[in-house]
Amino acid sequence: MIRNIDDHIVGYTKLLDEMRRTLAALSEQERAAVEEAAREIRKVRSAAAFVP
Description:
The chain has 2 helices and no strands. By secondary structure, the chain is mainly alpha-helical. Helices cover 87% and strands 0% of the residues. The longest helix has 24 residues, at 2-25.
């Protein structure tokens, strides 16, 4: 079981590293668009948390 958890942690770490590299390679305009989209997603998720 511990091995499985360790494998998941390694997988997530690799994924995060790849995401960071991808974001770092974006132009300023592209990064701003991603940040705006993330803000909108957070708003929708926040509102959805209060829907019965």
